[in-house]
Design a protein that fits this description.
With 324 residues, the protein is mainly alpha-helical. It has 2 domains: 1-154, Farnesyl Diphosphate Synthase, CATH 1.10.600; 187-324, Farnesyl Diphosphate Synthase, CATH 1.10.600.10. The chain has helices at 4-16, 25-35, 42-52, 62-83, 94-98, 100-118, 123-152, 158-184, 188-215, 218-221, 227-230, 236-244, 247-258, 264-278, 280-300, 310-320, and strands at residues 87-88, 91-92.
């Protein structure tokens, strides 16, 4: 069995050794910049770790793992265009550094490079890998569209929001794990359980992200606290607060999410007071724990020895072990 550090090193070296063309420079330089800008390589490591549960031949999973990482970075480039975001990972985004047109084209090229890597999978599993990958890709697009639709929607339900984050965030973790199992030749029931593990882990992760934006420590979270509130973003916390607040609290909450030119510090403070009043923090933590427990139950049900589950369990714990 490979350790997390060894799998991360395999993924990092795979990215470093990718043959990215030199010209046209303004097309491929942003791609190299993006791939070198950091990140924990969680998604390719999940592919490799899932494969390693059933096989020591993790090299067979390398190209699909790298494809997942390239696709993920492609989505980040295009997300930054849609969000007009100048900074990501404390560095200028491709959109912020090169502008919209280059970001669109470089993102498109990165997506094509991902498919080129998929096409290098073993022939006997290539069709299944590409089919699974396509489900991931379309699901992420569905989720992004729902997210944009929610920006102008007056009201969305908890179920609609959870469906959106399942598509936008969780399907990529789910698919990464399933592809790792497919490459290793795992039994179909175990592949499905890997997917269930990833899906629930992704939901827990995104809800924790919502929670940390409001209640986290900015020094360890890496983002300014209250950013979602200032941006009037509809998160799980916002949705629950609007459904639970009554009377003057509901009126005040509505006014802060409608008013323009409000002092952002005051807005965050007042909205957090209402969150605390209606118990949003505790409700969100309960939901996070529910999804995380579901993830661990799915992992427990996979038909391999407990020793072979340690890496995925550790990854899950590390993902969730942020400042809560």
């Amino acid at each position: 069995m490979y350790s997390i550090e060894e799998l991360t090193d395999i993924a990092d070296k795979g990215i470093l050794n990718l043959s990215i063309p030199e010209e046209p420079k303004r097309l491929y330089e942003p791609i190299r910049y993006t791939l070198a800008s950091g990140g924990k390589r969680i998604r390719p490591v999940l592919v490799l770790a899932a494969c390693n549960m059933f096989s020591n031949a993790v090299d067979k999973a390398l190209y699909p793992a790298l494809a997942i990482e390239l696709f993920h970075n492609f989505t980040l480039i295009h997300d930054d265009i849609m969000d007009k975001a100048p900074i990501r990972r404390n560095q200028p985004t491709v959109f912020g550094k090169w502008g919209q047109d280059i970001a669109i084209l470089s993102g498109d090229a990165l997506n094509i490079l991902a498919y080129q890597l998929l096409a290098r999978s073993d022939k006997e599993i290539m069709a299944q890998v590409i089919t699974t990958f396509n489900k991931i890709a379309l699901g992420v697009c569905d989720g992004q569209q729902y997210d944009m639709d929610f920006e102008t929607a007056q009201y969305i339900t908890q179920e609609e929001y959870l469906n959106m984050i399942e598509l936008k965030t969780s399907v990529l973790l789910k698919g990464a794990l399933e592809i790792g199992g497919i490459v290793a030749g795992a039994p179909q029931p175990d592949i499905l359980k890997l997917g269930t593990f990833g899906l629930n882990l992704g939901l827990a992760f995104q809800l924790q992200d919502d929670l940390l934006d409001a209640f986290g420590n900015s020094n360890t979270f890496g983002k300014k606290i209250g950013g979602d509130i200032v941006a009037n973003k509809k998160t799980f916390l916002t949705i629950k607060a609007f459904s639970l607040a009554k009377g003057k609290s509901l009126e005040l909450l509505s006014s802060y999410f409608k008013a323009e030119g409000v002092d952002p510090v005051q807005k965050v403070q007042e909205v957090l007071k209402i969150y605390n009043e209606v118990g949003v923090k505790e409700i969100t933590e309960e939901k996070i724990n529910e999804y995380f427990d579901n993830a661990l139950k799915a992992l427990e049900g996979i038909n391999v020895s407990s020793e072979k589950k340690v890496v995925l369990q550790t990854i899950a714990e590390r993902i969730m072990n942020r400042d809560r």
